[in-house]
Q: What sequence folds into this?
């Protein structure tokens, strides 16, 4: 079946949850002939070999990139420019590059800087499949099944190249959506980055207090759900916040205005206003949940 | 075994999740001889009879309260004064009254107003066992097993009466804690009422926008967890917010200061500060989770 594989050589930068699951899914679908992995830690790459995520560990991008069909940059957002700088000199004529970063305007800016005239070979992407764990041990061939993947194609991309990247993610079982990079970043600032910031802020606020032990002792299931994302990886979320700084500042500003309005309503004993806000929120949350369960 | 029951007659106001589960648990433990239920809806009380939560539906408090050993007021917070006014004239010498409300200063104020010289017979309580469902159908004999129940005894309560209420909850399998009413309200403003308000505010903020459909379309698991409590009952949470207005305003004010600081850090591109806050929050959240799982 090897001659039918859609991609001959896949190179992944980062063989953890995002990159490792992508490689495992394409291998399971028989759509890659060979996977070469680059990573920052030797132990991580050893694990990736052990788990069958990669066939070889790459050492020199100059040897591995020119004949690669597909490169997935699944490094943390902040390290993406460095990876792009390393591979840019070696991109082959047919090499397509995509990424798995949670923010897209910054990835596009870095790609324009390092890929220059070859920017058309970079099709930015963002798979929406968070999980509590990370690293090669967390990678799973079915991670992306029925999950959303957002591609944010550039004017320089050819329709055929975009279709090839779509196809790779479709082989992983994902549902593909397209947005512009700016739309993507604005939407995810609202529905993902802001909630993380708010959850961290609440836990931090309580943890700083002298009686934090007693406060936490009485926290229950509502607190548990609200703060689950405050256990997310700090450096990763610092980098996402910085990378998506302006849209996130705008969302934070809009949210502060909502809190100011709720503060005023509560101060004025305005039960009608509280009820209106809570009722509208519950209706929207319920509609979302029944839609999301489909 | 009936002669060994700790309580002869239990009267519950509200036979839903909170009151119904209390009655079922005491019945299962063989610690009540008879349960009489009062409720606002005829259909709810019929269900409570059907499910064996109550043995009889009460009609006239003047007939049911004088010989009651224990009265649990498990009505919504805002209806508690009305229930207290209805039963106050009929309290027997031995009748103990407790409640299941989420706020305690307001319950104590109402009890002082209506019970007057009999305030010592009222031992305020708050079982911490939320569930997504409500009504008699949601009641379960094991709802309180290993859950926390906070009692907030008054100076007028005798140690023996407090011990009897503790004992009733212990028969339900709960872990009993004691706080003053003011401590209780301050703690729950921080770990419960504020998170609900914040979660409602986020969903409301997004739901009001023209492009809310597209925003919600890309919301994923982080959003799901953060906003689960925004599907909570609007009137119930309006009443809790109003009942615990001053402590909640203080918490909201403290939280807004945290957001202001995070806004400033993000505006200044201060990754170090973001990292410090996120790291401290994650450590506290993880410590809480491992403690809570014990």
A:
């Amino acid at each position: 079946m090897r001659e039918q594989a859609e991609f001959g050589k896949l190179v992944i930068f980062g063989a953890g949850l995002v990159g490792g699951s992508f490689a495992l899914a394409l291998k399971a679908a028989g759509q890659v002939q060979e996977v070469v992995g680059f990573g920052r830690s030797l132990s991580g790459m050893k694990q990736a070999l052990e788990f069958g995520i990669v066939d070889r560990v790459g050492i020199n991008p100059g040897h591995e990139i020119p004949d690669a069909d597909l490169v997935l940059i699944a490094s943390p957002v902040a390290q993406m420019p460095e990876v792009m700088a390393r591979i840019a000199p070696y991109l082959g004529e047919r090499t397509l590059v995509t990424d798995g970063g949670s923010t897209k305007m910054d990835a596009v800016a870095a790609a324009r800087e390092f890929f220059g005239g070859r920017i058309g070979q970079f099709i930015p992407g963002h798979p929406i499949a968070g999980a509590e764990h990370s690293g090669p041990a967390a990678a799973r061939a079915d991670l992306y099944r029925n999950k959303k993947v957002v591609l944010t194609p550039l004017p320089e991309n050819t329709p055929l190249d975009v279709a090839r990247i779509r196809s790779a993610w479709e082989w992983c079982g994902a549902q593909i959506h397209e947005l512009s990079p700016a739309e993507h970043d604005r939407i995810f600032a609202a529905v993902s980055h802001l909630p993380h910031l708010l959850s961290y802020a609440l836990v931090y606020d309580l943890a700083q207090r002298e009686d934090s032990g007693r406060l936490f002792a009485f926290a229950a299931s509502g607190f548990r759900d609200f703060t689950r994302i405050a256990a997310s990886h700090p450096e990763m979320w610092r980098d996402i916040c910085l990378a998506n700084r302006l849209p996130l500042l705008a969302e934070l500003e809009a949210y502060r205005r909502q809190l100011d309005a709720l503060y005023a309503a509560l101060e004025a004993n305005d039960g009608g206003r509280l009820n209106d806000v809570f009722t509208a929120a519950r209706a929207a949350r319920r509609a979302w949940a029944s839609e999301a369960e489909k």
